[in-house]
Amino acid sequence: MNKYKIIIIGSGPAGISTALSLKKIAPDLVDDLLVLDKAKHPRHKLCGGGVTDFADIILDGLGIESRVTKFPIHKACLYFGEKPVYFERENLFYIIRRNEFDADLAEQARSAGIQIREEEALLNLKHENNQVVLETDKADYAANVVIGADGANSVVRKKLFQQQQSRVSRLMEIIVPATPA
Asked: At what angle do helices 13-25 and 98-111 cross, to 10 degrees?
């Protein structure tokens, strides 16, 4: 059985930024840290792709940068029931393609020494002898700490907390050519 102090499930922005944060505050943990993901980068991620400039501040603090193409958004309107709320500011947020963004973050994390195993799906996990035992479709692991960064339909949450009901978000993604105008 493969043993690690910390295993992070999910190599999207949450998992990668967690791994890089741990490396920053405890560099000696890097060899005892593993990130697992069921997919392989670049992977399609149905997502609106909206990212605020706060993300760049976080990434900068972790020693990486967003190197993917960004499309700036300067105006937005959100509806609360029938009532619209308008936001307008230069570079209010930007739109990115999540498959490119996530793949770039994973690449930069690997370059920083983070071990990421892709195409390895979590099948089961359980508490056993003061550790968490994980079974994937490729290997078995034991960890002192498991961090679930595996999204809205989290396998970690379902297995550890026996949650039967999942929140489901609906999104339609349409990619069309756009000009800054």
From this structure: 20
* DSSP 8-state symbol, 112: T
DSSP β-bridge partners for residue 140 = 135
Structure-block tokens of residue 111: 């370059």
Q: Which DSSP category does 42 fall into?
A: S
Q: Provide the pLDDT for residue 159.
A: 80
| H or E element at residue 53 | helix 53-61
Q: At residue 26, does pLDDT exceed 90?
A: yes
Beta carbons within 8 Å of 45's beta carbon, 6+ residues apart: 12, 98, 99, 102
Whether residue 83 is predicted with pLDDT greater than 80 in this model: the reply is yes
Distance CA 20, CA 109 (A): 7
Read off the DSSP letter of residue 28.
G
At residue 43 the predicted structure's pLDDT band, cuts being 50, 70 and 90, is confident
Query: What is the distance between the terminal CA atoms of the chain, rounded to a whole angstrom?
Result: 56
Report d(CA 8, CA 28) in Å as an integer.
16
Q: How far apart are alpha carbons 68 and 101 in whole angstroms?
A: 6
Q: How many residues does the chain have?
A: 181
Q: Which amino acid is at 24?
A: K
- Render pLDDT for 98-149 as a digit per residue (tens, 0 to 9): 899 999 999 999 999 999 999 999 999 998 999 999 999 999 999 999 999 9
Supply angle C-alpha 49, 12, 170, rounded to 5. 45
